[in-house]
Design goal:
The protein has about 425 residues and is of the alpha/beta class. Helix content is about 50%, strand content about 15%. Bound molecules: 5-phosphoarabinonic acid.
Length: about 425
Amino acid sequence: MNEKIQVISKYALEGLNVQGLDNAALAAKQTLESGSGAGNDFLGWLHLPSSIDEQQFQSIEKSAALLRSDCEYVITIGIGGSYLGAKCVIEALSDHFAAYKAGGTKVVFAGSNIGEDYLYDLMDLVRGRKFGIIVISKSGTTTEPGIAFRLFKDMLEKQEGKAFAQQHIIAVTDARRGALRGLATQEGYVTYVIPDNVGGRFSVLTPVGLLPIAVAGFDIRALVAGAVEMERDGDQVILDYAIARNALYQSGKKIEILANFTPRLHYIAEWWKQLYGESEGKEHKGIFPASVDFTTDLHSMGQWIQDGERTIFETVLSVGDQQHEVLIPSDKEDLDGLNYIAGKNVDYVNKMAELGTRLAHVDGGVPNLLITMPAVNERYLGQLIYFFEKACGVSGYMLGVNPFDQPGVEAYKKNMFALLEKPGYEEATKAIKEKLS
Ligand code: PA5
């Protein structure tokens, strides 16, 4: 078995000339590694995996152990890059039905939306139960997690008392700046720092991701070790992916659909969409990152992918081994006509669906890239995370944008604050009221 993430572009690049792009990718990688490109003050993630030391692991594990021993639920509060990394790794590694099974500390999430009913239901869930909070915000001023934290901090203090809350709230934020840093200092919370030079969507291997992942009971050392493998020895696959997607983009394929056949990878795609969407969608350029869960979505979006507008390419994230085996039983009557697959394991059928889908979509004019991971475990998820991060940096530079800023996310905030009549937004409030009248 190959021990690493692989990229296979056999069905992706037929008829495309990638010669020039090889050099462009190497130049982009050089720009990234030398720190000479745009956004070069946000490259702290590049050598992050290999720089995490024993003391950092032990500190995170200690905090996780405290929350695990004292809490039935740990509410992890954050949005965007302060949410999706932990969410995708925990979802990928968890029993699909863990929420319905007794035992163990459950990591639940808040602050990634402003859904009143969502917050109500979560408050209802933890009422009268022992819970702790990990609040994560680099800026320390983001509205969605701010509202959630205010609610759950208040609830925890009233439910368990100020001393318990003080011991069971952990803040992950900037070393110096922001409202959350000030509040955490004043309340005396344990805190972890998001390094200045690591942007939100590249922060999963900092305490932003590692702390909730450890609280969920997963092996953060193996996760980081996997990322180190890719940091040290991943350049070729990273280049292969960056070259292929830029070649396809230049040939008119404007949408990349990340497809999986493994339900536990759903949130990996959500994390990937943020990583690539927020990094590349600038200056009216950039591949639109979309995702589907197969075979489920073959019964909905499959039609569009097979026969719709030919501006898409598909990247299938394929998993080698499942964790468990389930055999399809034989049936004497065979009324459902499934005896032809009796004795096979379910994943064998899934793999045939995967291959059949790829070939059908290629026949339908959808170039197909394949990313293989040997299994879904901490090690290969660590590899995958670093692989996607570095390929994103290379790909963004090939596209000619700064992959490490996100100026476009401010526009909605300005309007929202104006509409909420936030102090300091008086002019904007006046302007938006005129616009709406
Ligand atoms: O990738 C990013 O920078 C963003 O998605 C942020 O992570 C997100 O907006 C949350 O920001 P903060 O951590 O400052 O609350």
